[in-house]
Amino acid sequence: MPHAYPFLSTEQKKELSDIAKKIVAPGKGILAADESTGSVAKRFQGINAENTEENRRLYRQLLFTADDRVAPCIGGVIFFHETLYQKTDDGKLFPQLIRERGQVVGIKVDKGVMPLAGTDGETTTQGLDGLYERCAQYKKDGADFAKWRCVLKITENTPSELAIMENANVLARYASICQMVRHHGIVPIVEPEILPDGDHDLQRTQYVTEKVLAAVYKALSDHHVYLEGTLLKPNMVTAGHSCTRKYSAQEVAMATVTALRRTVPPAVPGVTFLSGGQSEEQASINLNAINQCPLGRPWALTFSYGRALQASALKAWGGKKENGKACQEEYIKRALNNNLASQGKYVSSGDKGAAGGESLYVANHAY
């Protein structure tokens, strides 16, 4: 039998696992600032701000330069391609700024979902062509981890076996390419998102989540992916958005941790949940309950939030320069709440911020 991971040296494996552990150090999670230009357009529309490259730069600069109170909260920041090459007002490249603050720079590398032929409206994710070269360039330009999102839907007929297998294999191919990049590789975040659309109950989401994660980890094993140098970005196990029954945070936590325990190897250093359209406050409450769950949890269980860290900040900013401080205060507040939630220490005060209690659900969310 050949050795496991024959393509990675001991030094490469150590570097990959060190990066992954740094991102999910106790109390830390990820700021997902990798919304595509189209997604930003929708967000800016909601606050009557013009979607220009300069406005996108100004807004992200506010998040990236928030004061030192965020230092214990954010381990990594995911960039969109454009953002990786933008600079602060005084000419410093954003990746340099992030690294100087002790955070790890990440990059979204997939090229969006596309229809999967032979299925009932299901999708796969494109972007594998030229991925090795792109990752090598991103590594050179300061990125140490990457993110790739696959999307599955729950309906009467889906997800199909075909969609589950195809998306698992795409995620595994992406992950193995990331780790193979010369000069010590890039840590892949594996994101198989099961959308919250639908009226299915909690048990159905749990069942599907387990099937999907089991397939993903089988594919990662088949593709010789070094699990200690990866992170998982899954959905929390919640009922469909239109489900009439409401479940408690404790029920969501038990279903989520049970699904992970059945499928995710303890070798994986961390699970960084997406917020999946939950309100900012609900995303913190559920993450906190997950970290208080009485079941054993061998991984760091933390956050990789976009909307659930930014909705109130964006609203407070409103596209106006004079609101910069207010924007940063809202972002810092959410970051601190999730720092506590990732340690099971968050107590909701009922102070929901500018958008804290608003549902952030978007049907068929693409970005």
Rounded radius of gyration (Å): 19 Å
What's the tally of helices? 12
Element order: H for helix, E for strand: HEHHEHHEEEHEHEHEHEHEHH
> Which oligomeric state applies?
single chain
| Helix content percent band | 40-55%
- State which percent range the strand residues make up: 5-15%
Poorly predicted tracts of residues: none
**Major sheet strand order:** 8-7-6-3-2-1-10-9
From the helix content, strand content and strand pairing, which structural class follows? Answer: alpha/beta
* Mean pLDDT, all residues: 94
Distance between the termini: 43 Å
Number of strand segments? 10
Tell me about the biggest sheet? 8 strands, parallel
Overall, the morphology is globular
Summarize the helices and strands and which ones pair or pack.
Blueprint: H1 10-23, E1 29-33, H2 37-45, H3 53-64, E2 74-79, H4 81-84, H5 94-100, E3 104-108, E4 113-115, E5 123-125, H6 131-140, E6 145-152, H7 161-180, E7 187-194, H8 202-222, E8 231-232, H9 249-263, E9 270-273, H10 280-292, E10 300-305, H11 307-317, H12 324-341
Parallel strand pairs: 1-2, 1-10, 2-3, 3-6, 6-7, 7-8, 9-10
Antiparallel strand pairs: 4-5
Helix pairs in contact: 7-8, 8-9, 9-10, 10-11, 10-12, 11-12
Outline the structure in words.
- The protein is built from twelve helices and ten strands.
- It has helices at residues 10-23, 37-45, 53-64, 81-84, 94-100, 131-140, 161-180, 202-222, 249-263, 280-292, 307-317, 324-341, and strands spanning 29-33, 74-79, 104-108, 113-115, 123-125, 145-152, 187-194, 231-232, 270-273, 300-305.
- The strands form two sheets. Strands 8-7-6-3-2-1-10-9 form an eight-stranded parallel beta sheet. A two-stranded antiparallel ribbon has the order 4-5.
- It is globular, with a radius of gyration of 19 Å.
